[in-house]
């Protein structure tokens, strides 16, 4: 009975370790892979939008200053 | 005990070695997104009135200086010519991020001061109107337009 419980616990531990290692490998692969063209385009687009937002905010502030 | 040692060896040791360097394109994305975050934080601080127009002009100047460097970085990445280090790009971008960080720090300091004053009023430690006034008070228009 004790032997059976030990084997069960061992299998459970092994499965847990396997999942953990598989997760680590998947994460490492994800971090080390090259971005696709679409992903690169999306990165550039995000930056352009933020740059435009900054320009628009300055224009808004200058307009407010001019009204004073 | 032996099981614990085995678990450590199987999980943590490979974990340390798997966290290797990111790909050049991932590094580029991280750099670019750092600028996006800095720009948007500055926009938010300005809208809330914690940055002056001069601060904002400075941020736009930094943005205009960083733009061609980021564009060159993007071009090199797309052409697969980007070395993971690219020291000159990394150094320039780091300088720009420091400049943007300084502007954000200014806005955050104004915000913290305003929050402290408000807290003092709510706790009855002060009866005066919260100071500092926002650097650029929001304009309230008729009908909320």
What is the secondary structure topology, with strand pairs?
The complex is a heterodimer of chains A (68) and B (145).
Chain A: H1 2-32, H2 37-67
Chain B: H1 2-18, H2 24-47, H3 53-78, H4 87-122
Helix pairs in contact in B: 2-3, 2-4, 3-4
Features:
heterodimer, A: 68 residues, 2 helices, elongated, B: 145 residues, mainly alpha
Note down, in words, how this protein is organized.
The complex is a heterodimer of chains A (68) and B (145). With 68 residues, chain A is mainly alpha-helical. Chain A has helices at 2-32, 37-67. Chain A starts with a helix and ends with a helix. Chain B is mainly alpha-helical. The mean pLDDT of chain B is 81. In chain B, helix 2 (24-47) packs parallel to helix 4 (87-122) and helix 3 (53-78) packs antiparallel against helix 4. The chains are: A mainly alpha (68), B mainly alpha (145). Chains A and B meet through helix 1 and helix 2 of A and helix 1, helix 2 and helix 3 of B.
Main beta sheet of chain A: strand number and arrangement? none
Largest interface: A-B, 33 and 40 residues
Q: Roughly how many Å is the radius of gyration of chain B?
A: 23 Å
- Runs of chain A in which pLDDT lies below 50 for 5 or more consecutive residues are none
Oligomer type = heterodimer
Helix content of chain A: over 70%
Summarize the structure.
Chain A is mainly α and 68 residues long. Chain A is 91% helix and 0% strand. The N and C termini of chain A lie far apart (86 Å).
């Amino acid at each position: 009975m004790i032997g059976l419980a030990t084997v069960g616990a061992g299998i459970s531990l092994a499965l847990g370790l396997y999942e953990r290692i598989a997760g680590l490998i998947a994460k490492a692969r994800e971090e080390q892979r090259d971005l696709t063209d679409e992903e690169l385009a999306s990165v550039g687009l995000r930056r352009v939008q933020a740059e435009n937002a900054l320009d628009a905010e300055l224009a808004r502030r200058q307009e407010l200053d001019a009204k004073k | 005990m032996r099981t614990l040692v085995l678990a450590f060896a199987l999980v943590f040791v490979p974990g340390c070695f798997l966290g290797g360097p990111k790909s050049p394109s991932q590094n580029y994305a991280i750099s670019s997104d750092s600028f996006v975050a800095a720009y948007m934080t500055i926009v938010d601080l300005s809208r809330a009135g914690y940055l002056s127009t001069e601060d904002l002009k400075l941020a736009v100047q930094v943005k205009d200086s960083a733009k061609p460097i980021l564009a060159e970085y993007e071009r090199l990445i797309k052409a697969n010519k980007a070395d993971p280090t690219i020291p000159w790009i990394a150094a320039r971008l780091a300088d720009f991020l420091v400049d943007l960080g300084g502007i954000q720090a200014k806005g955050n300091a104004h915000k913290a001061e305003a929050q402290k004053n408000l807290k003092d009023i709510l706790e009855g430690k002060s009866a005066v109107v919260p100071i500092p006034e926002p650097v650029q008070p929001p304009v309230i228009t008729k009908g909320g337009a």
